[in-house]
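tool_call predict_complex ligand=protoporphyrin IX containing FE
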Amino acid sequence: MLYATLKTLHVLAIVVWIGGMVFAHFFLRPAVAQLEAPLRLRLMQDVLGRFFKAVFAASLLALATGLWMLGRVAKQVVQSGGQFQMPLAWTVMAVLGVAMIAIFMHIRFALFKRLSRAVSAAEWAAGGAALAQIRIWVSVNLTLGVLVLLVTLMRWSA
Ligand code: HEM
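tool_result ok
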């Protein structure tokens, strides 16, 4: 029951994170591209600020629940006298998951800070450059996330 609850939380956290990236990248960004820079950058800074708070919580929740599930399964195998061998899909998920969190932290604490500073100072060229960087790294994270989903849900293994 606890395992199933944590797995559900794990997947819900991922839904918020991946779903939000899809929305921002494919729907919000093209729609606001037509706006003037000051309005566009203020709007994106506000929307991303709210979204990144949710991603911060979701990414840490995914990490904590994922590590807990790993530990739980490994412990059970060892206690029953077996030797724990991590499935390849889990290894891929853990490694790429940690990479995604590191990339998110870079987006949130370096690039988004740069965007916020530029918006406060009304430096629209600098703001546009920071937003373009955020877009690139969000698409990297989206690609990694979809890859993890494919490997995990399609049960790909060596
Ligand atoms: C941050 C490090 C992560 C760790 C340590 C981790 C670990 C785990 C573990 C141990 C399970 C349980 C698998 C099972 O009981 O069958 C699981 C399930 C799952 N994880 Fe992760 N995970 C991480 C990140 C991610 C990411 C980034 C994604 C997607 C982008 C993801 C998607 C999923 C999905 C969809 C399941 C359910 C799989 C199923 O039931 O078929 N995880 N994760």
